[in-house]
């Protein structure tokens, strides 16, 4: 816990110093009809209170914003993604597009399987998407299926527990990423013999 609070204090100071460029740290990918009023908003609010600059479409976009420009930009600039899979997730072109873009961008994605099993995830060809999109979406879903994630049953589980577990995993990932950056800086610093 001490390491986490140290990281958050350092991270917040760094973010305040770099406020000019404000990419999101955590992109929350979700099916609005299933999870916007529950886990997606709870995650957003929790990350926001931790000063982790989350991106949630309904919170970060305003009338007149271009959907794809803003969402694609946020995904490309984010550090980590949280994909909240739900029963109707695979019916949404936007959800699948966002997931595919996160996977193609090689973002670390933390899946939450909310009222759905990983084996149930598949993009269905309903005739509205190009076959190339269907293949792309199924590839991204396969990647997510084989990524260790969190499972949540909304009838039996506690929302607070899934939010806490998710944020713990996101913070751990950000700590690892910061450590990797510091290692890269040390490797690139030339050592002078005196």
From TrEMBL:
SMART domains referenced in this protein's UniProt entry, alphabetically: TIR
InterPro entries attached to this UniProt entry: TIR_dom, Toll_tir_struct_dom_sf
Domain TIR: 22-145
An individual GO BP term: signal transduction
Domain of life: Eukaryota
PANTHER family associated with the record: COP1-INTERACTING PROTEIN-RELATED (PTHR31008), TOLL-INTERLEUKIN-RESISTANCE (TIR) DOMAIN FAMILY PROTEIN (PTHR31008:SF16)
Name the UniProt record assigns to this protein: COP1-INTERACTING PROTEIN-RELATED
Species whose genome carries this gene: Salix purpurea (Purple osier willow)
């Amino acid at each position: 816990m001490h390491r986490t609070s140290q990281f958050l204090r350092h991270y917040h100071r760094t973010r305040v110093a770099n406020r000019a460029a404000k990419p999101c740290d955590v992109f929350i990918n979700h099916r609005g009809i299933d999870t916007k009023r529950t886990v997606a908003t709870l995650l957003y609010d929790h990350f926001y209170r931790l000063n982790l600059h989350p991106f949630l479409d309904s919170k970060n976009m305003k009338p007149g914003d271009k959907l794809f420009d803003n969402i694609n930009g946020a995904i490309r600039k984010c550090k980590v993604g949280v994909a909240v899979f739900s029963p109707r997730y695979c019916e949404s072109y936007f959800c699948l597009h966002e997931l595919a873009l996160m996977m193609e961008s090689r973002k670390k994605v933390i899946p939450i399987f909310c009222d759905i099993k990983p084996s149930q995830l598949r993009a269905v060809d309903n005739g509205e998407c190009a076959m190339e999109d269907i293949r792309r979406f199924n590839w991204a879903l396969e990647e997510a299926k084989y990524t260790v994630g969190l499972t949540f049953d909304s009838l039996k589980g506690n929302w607070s527990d899934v939010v806490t577990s998710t944020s713990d995993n996101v913070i751990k990932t950000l700590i690892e990423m910061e450590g990797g950056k510091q290692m890269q800086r040390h490797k690139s610093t030339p050592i002078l013999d005196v």
